[in-house]
Specification:
7 helices; alpha+beta; single chain
Length: 203
């Protein structure tokens, strides 16, 4: 419209490049790109591409509210990579980063629509499974163990995980309590199953 106005009333030739428009579009594109980058790094972990802890803590009140509204279940899964420091010290930090990235890729394979995976910190991850009843959490853990076995064969060294779970609403309604319950379950599991794969049929 500006071009048409300039052509009709300002004797502006169609052959001239719309320099101001190009500049404006460039600024808008650059600003949009920077906004997308800022949004990504505010919500996502740079190494794994998973959501970060800040995003989960911000989103959980709404997730729990929606889950309660439709009378659904919610599974909280806390995951720790066993002997991660040993992996870093033995094979180097680049290999350690690769392990974390491969674990993240496994989550992307196992998760269903609306499920969420996050890097909780260091070598810990948190997974939120929608519509997951209590028994289904252990089935999911077994599938995860199978993928870690495949990953161990692929990388040439053992990758095992310690996993703890909690379930909404069976074990609580507050996110902090559910995470704390899963955390205790994870460390109890770690003590019972050192060196073993991430699966146990009973707590």
């Amino acid at each position: 419209m500006i071009r048409i106005y300039a052509y009709l009333y300002l004797d502006y030739s169609w052959m001239n490049l719309p320099i101001p428009g190009i500049i404006v579009l460039g600024v808008v594109y650059w600003s949009g790109k920077k906004y997308d980058e800022a949004k990504f790094f505010s919500e996502k972990d740079e190494l794994t591409g998973l959501y970060n802890r800040r995003f989960i803590q911000k989103s959980m009140p709404m997730i729990l509210q929606n889950t309660k509204k439709i009378h659904n279940c919610l599974g909280i899964v806390l995951i720790d990579c066993n002997d991660f420091k040993v992996i870093n010290d033995t094979y180097g930090h680049a290999k350690g980063d690769l392990v974390l990235q491969k674990i993240a890729e496994t989550f992307n394979v196992l998760l269903e629509t609306n499920d969420i995976a996050a890097r909780w910190g260091g070598d810990e991850f948190l997974v939120i499974l929608h519509r997951a009843k209590f028994d289904a959490l252990y089935v999911w853990k077994e599938k995860l163990a199978e993928h870690m076995s495949d990953l161990s064969s692929q990388l040439g060294f053992s990758i095992t995980l310690s996993v703890g779970v909690s379930s909404y609403p069976q074990e609580g309604s507050e996110f902090e309590y559910l995470v704390s319950t899963a955390d205790k379950d994870m460390y109890a599991y770690k003590e019972r199953h050192k060196g073993k794969k991430v699966y146990n049929g009973q707590r």
